[in-house]
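Inputs:
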Amino acid sequence: MARATRSLTSRVVVGVLSLLLVGGVIVAIASFAYGQQAAKQAYDRLLLGAASDIAESITILNGTPMADLPVSAFQLLAQAPDDRIGYAVRGPDEQLLTGHAAVNSAPEPQRRPTNQPVFFDATLQNEAARFVTVTRIFAEREFSGTVSVTVGQTMLARNAMALGLTRDALIASILAGLALMVLAIVVIRNAMAPLDRIASELLDRDPYDLTPMDNNVPAEAAVMVDAMNRFMRRLDRQIGSMRNLISDTAHQLRTPVAAIRTQAELASEETVPEAQRLMVGRLARRSRSLGELLDQMLSRALVIHRTDSAPRRPVDLRDVALEVVEARDHELLSPGAEVELVIGPDPIFVMADEISLTEAAKNMFNNALRHGTPPVRIGVSRTGTRASLWVQDAGPGPTPEVLSRMGQRFERNAASKGQSAGLGLSIVRAVAEAFEGELTMTPTDDGFRVSLTLTAHEVPE
Amino acid sequence: MIRAAALLLALAAPAAAQEAVATYGTGPTPLMFRSTTDIAVLGPTIQTFTEANPDITVTYEQWGSNALYKLTLDGCQSGDDTADAVLSSGVHQMVELVNMACARPYRSALTATLSSERIWRNELWGITREPAVMLYNTDLVPPEEVPRTRFQLLDLMRQQNPRYQNRIATYDIEASGLGYLLAFSDSIEASTFGGLLEGFSRTDAIATCCSAEIIKGVAEGRYLLAYNVLGSYVSTQPQDKIGVILPEDYTLFLSRAYMIPKNAPHPIAANRLLDFLLSDAGKAQLSASGLEWQRDEDESGLPASSERSIRLEPMLLVARDQQRRSLFITQWRLTFGAPRFLTP
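Outputs:
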């Protein structure tokens, strides 16, 4: 836990905040530009209004243009109360008629084409200022020519307005940003809540509790929960089979081991050599039978473990049958018994674990050798999509009451005799179930057949 | 024929300059203070200031408003200001100086208390509050004829009463910057101005230069009525037989403008003088000197809505415009005739 990478929440929060920040910067730049533009337009209009007022007031008096400077023009300019004002009324040849000598008209080329108002930036006593020049053309008897009116103002009010607009826009967007941030945090927490729930459920869970978790979670988390549940199911099964193995082993070994110990004690106390030899022989038989029992139990545990964990591969059933016969166990179990292998030229594939199948086949084969009537035949066959591995002997098969009990985990009856644990068929049945197959026992015309039938695999590799 | 009074001082104004000098205090920091206000009027206030600030020595020079404007402008343009503080009644000239970036800004808690009409750009401050009033001789004008408003003055002048012929006085606007400012403000304020000019013409009114001359003339009975005289001058030159009228249609109020030149050698001292003039102690002193008019319903009967302050704002630049001024003076001359400086 200590080395966990950055939490999802913090990733998402950092991402969302970065987005908001970038958005905020863009909004700030935009609102500054907007403020500048709005202030420029507003105050340019005031300038133009004042200049037009002055231009309107010009009359020709004794051949000279005279501006009767209107107060209204300056009242317009006073909308920017703290800004200094410069103005000049100039006649032809830029000769100053009235106003401030330091204020010049807009450059001639700009005014030339249309005589429209021309706005320009210049300075007023070394301070940045904005000017407009309005031109009025006179064609009177006494005076003919153009008179230009230039009005300018420093930029305190304009800059203040631009700043004010920018500030207002920024305050609004900061408030909106904060609201978005709060909403984003609420939304993120909401979205992350199922993960928190899973985490706390896991933390609260008893370490031995392997029941599945509630998978009523969002799709993204369901993948994780399902994987975890599958894992826990397998773990649960394996722990269960381990538990079974241990309890079976304890149960099944106790009696034969006690018997061996008793016989060994009796044998050691026996003084008659003949009787002692007899007892030692019995002891040896008992311990061999115990060995077989152990083998079977281990092989069953192996099969159960493998069916759960080993990957399935295509297996040719003929190889399984061949391997069983070639192991030559039957020569130990029932020497001289006749054994026949019935396989065709075509492979018959199933998807399974070869070792498990081999264990199952061995058990079927050995059962037939032990309990059946020779000759014993082992073979494979295929009917449609079903592939079978079968063992057949020439006998009539077990009695119906034995048949009904067969395939249980172990059979007390057999176990108590110390000869068979009755585990063989239960191994076969477990394998059949693990690979979605079935175990069938059928009397035939010439004997009794036990078949392990699985789904055939069509495309062998 | 209308005649204008002899204007000896107007002749002298461009060349000569300083009218009087006084020095207050003995402190190490000098403060050059130039004002259009009589030393006799404002001197006590400056005296109080140096007593409260013993480290400052104030040199008080009294100037005419046009000369003071020119001197200050020269100092601004040459970058060699010699004054630390300028206080002028020619507020339109002061507004123009500020508009030409000749002033130095200052902010303090006291300047922040000024109403907007008495402060511009934190570079020009209105120190006083003085009404422009009408005067009459209480002996010679019968009480029922005393005009309370400009309309009554107009009616009086239209009656062609020979008693008032040639006996009404006002400032000569060419000679007096203050007279021009008041006349200009009248022309903007109300349409009565045209009628007044017509009335002055009809009664052969006299345009003369100076407050003192007008007040003295009214007191002596040479003039029966005087129009647009600063009330403060009357209260500082108390005379018997003079009645004061604050016109009830509207009364102009002037605030003398205080400015610190851009290149003032001792701006800190000038800031302190400004703060003193705006402080309670300074205001009390100005009030005692008649420069800060206090509202008194019983005495004046002037409705508050009739008070019109001459605002310190760029609109006053209109008054300084060359062509507008020449048009205005042309119109004035049509009433009073060309100035005849040398006639008695």
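Remarks. The first strand of chain A starts at residue 58 and ends at 61. The radius of gyration of chain A is 53 Å.
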